[in-house]
Write a structure and sequence with these properties.
Elements (H helix, E strand, L loop, with lengths): L5 E6 L2 E6 L10 H17 L4 E6 L3 E3 L4 H4 L4 H19 L5 E5 L2 E3 L1 H8 L2 E5 L3 E3 L13 H9 L1 H10 L2 E3 H6 L5 E3 L4 H13 L3 H15 L3 H14 L4 H10 L9
Parallel strand pairs: 2-3, 3-5, 4-6, 5-7, 6-8, 7-10
Antiparallel strand pairs: 1-2, 8-9
Helix pairs in contact: 1-3, 3-4, 4-5, 5-6, 9-10
The chain binds acetoacetyl-coenzyme A.
């Protein structure tokens, strides 16, 4: 597929994907979703790199679902619109590799929801987060009502979603929505540095750790512990042997197994 809106750039074992529709503040339209689904299919199938970083071009990460497209929907169309966004962001969240959102500006509505489907959020100091749907007489439709409370708790989520207020990067950091703040000109460098750090750890261990954290979160504690035990043991047939041997031999591990 020839992409018009998403721009992938490879940096070794890390890929930077830029959403590029700056004239509409990267509002998420149908063409964006078609491209993202195609791209995620390719990433799941080929796993051609170890960490994905997502950012936006210009002054927005993404200013939400495309309101011009949404405005023409009827009841059934709106249901499908919501479901498409939910399913696509689930595909993103379920990628076996870690995904970092480098939030460079507005992350509102669907844009905030996109960032929350990523595993880690780094924000530029001028980023603005929010779920302003109630200002339009709507509710978040791309899992915002569920992911925000899982990330920051129910009380804060009720405050932000019911008021439709936006929060700045400092507030987002204070409440745990973002995991780091960078100066705007350093954001991509910092996000790529974190991505490279992750990409040079044990690749199977990183994938297992993401899986355990993500899947275990919605399971009973004991079931999640059983799952953790199995994955822990599995790595002793595999790259864990090399990692521990390298430590004892005071050398860098070689993960090519
Ligand atoms: N959809 C479609 N177009 C959008 C957009 C959106 N979500 N956000 C911005 N744009 C467009 C504007 O219409 C404008 O286009 P024109 O130049 O053709 O008029 C262009 O982007 C620039 O926007 P502004 O002139 O408004 O820029 P600003 O700097 O004055 O304001 C802003 C920036 C505060 C982000 C403002 O654009 C805004 O409030 N945008 C809407 C944010 C929003 O409500 N997002 C939630 C959408 S609903 C949703 O996402 C539902 C869901 O969960 C599925």
């Amino acid at each position: 597929m020839n992409y018009q809106i998403i721009k992938p750039e490879r940096f070794g074992r890390v890929e930077l994907l830029t959403i590029s529709r700056p004239a509409s503040l990267n509002a998420l339209n149908s063409a964006f979703f078609a491209e993202l689904v195609d791209y995620l299919d390719y990433v799941v199938t080929d796993e051609p790199f170890d960490v994905l970083v997502i950012t936006g071009e210009g002054k927005a990460f993404a200013a939400g679902a495309d309101i011009a497209e949404m405005a023409g929907l009827d009841h059934e169309g709106a249901r499908r619109f919501s479901e498409r966004g939910q399913q696509t962001f689930l595909m993103l969240e379920d990628l076996p590799i870690p995904v970092i959102a480098a939030v460079n500006g507005y992350a509102l509505g669907g844009g905030c929801e996109l960032s929350m489907a990523c595993d880690i959020r780094l924000a530029s100091s001028n980023a603005l987060f929010g779920q302003p749907e109630v200002n339009l007489g709507l509710v978040p439709g791309y899992a915002g009502t569920q992911r925000l409370s899982r990330l920051i708790g129910l009380g804060g989520s009720l405050k932000w979603i019911l008021s439709g207020l936006n929060m700045d990067a400092n507030e987002a950091y204070r409440i745990g929505l973002v995991q780091g703040i960078s100066e705007p000109e350093k954001l991509i460098e910092d996000a790529l540095a974190l991505a490279r750090r992750i990409a040079t750890r044990g690749p199977k261990a990183v994938r297992a750790a993401k899986f355990l954290l993500r899947k275990g979160f919605d399971m009973s504690f004991q079931k999640a512990l059983d799952m953790e035990k199995e994955h822990f043991a599995e790595l002793f047939n595999d790259e864990g042997i090399e990692g521990m041997k390298a430590f004892l031999e005071k050398r860098k591990p070689s993960w090519e197994l």
